[in-house]
Amino acid sequence: MNITITGRKVTLKDSFKQRVEKKLSKFDKFFDEDAQANVTVTLEKNRQTVEVTVKSAGMYFRAEDTAYMMEDALDKVVDSLMRQIRKNKTKLEKRLRDSAFDEFAVDSVVDEETDFQIVRSKKFPIKPLDIDEAILQMNMLNHEFFMFRNAVTGEINVVYRRKDGNYGVLEPDVE
Fold first, then answer.
1. I need a labelling partner for 88 at 20 to 30 A (CA). Which of 26, 103, 111, 121 fits?
2. Whole-angstrom Cα distance, residue 1 to residue 33?
3. Helix or strand holding residue 82 (H, E)
4. Contact 18, 48 (CB under 8 A)
5. 85: three-class secondary structure by DSSP
6. Tens of pLDDT, residues 151-170
7. C-alpha distance from residue 43 to each of 18, 98, 162 (Å)
8. How far does CA 160 lie from the centroid of its chain?
């Protein structure tokens, strides 16, 4: 797994970088050598946020946590990623390394196979909007996200409200 470590508003010590590599090496059994892990550490006043995004075989795994010490946040993020993989292990076995899940066959946190149940399906017309109009529409509806056709690109996009109160945009990327 290729690991990229970035510090925002903080200089990261080599000992922390080594700790990141050691913690993320737990996931080597799930991902092949082409997997890409991006670790971002951000210092905000007396809080430190660690965000880890792992991309492999077209799938993304992401976790983020904020704590007083970056080491504590890293531990929580690694635990969260492991929970994501365990929870979805039956669906992930088809895309990730087959032998990686052998240990979970005996000692698994989630034994039953999880099927997702769609309880509602909704169709609505999508008119072209710019990003600011889409955010305004989302806020007027008091939703956390809003799907729209981008007036500039013509693509379907999604705007969403982030935990920090800012906004994000999801755009398609053909690989």
1. 121
2. 5
3. helix 70-87
4. no
5. helix
6. 999 999 999 999 888 999 99
7. 19, 38, 18
8. 14
Domains and CATH numbers, the chain: 2-106 (3.30.160.100), 128-170 (3.30.505.50)
CA distance 27 to 56: 11
Q: Which residue has the tokens 């052998």?
A: 102
Q: Residue 45 and residue 42: Cα distance in Å, rounded?
A: 10
Quick one: tokens of 18?
């080594």
Contact in structure between 102 and 81 (CB atoms under 8 Å): no
* Contact of 28 with 50, CB cutoff 8 Å: no
Total length of the chain:
175
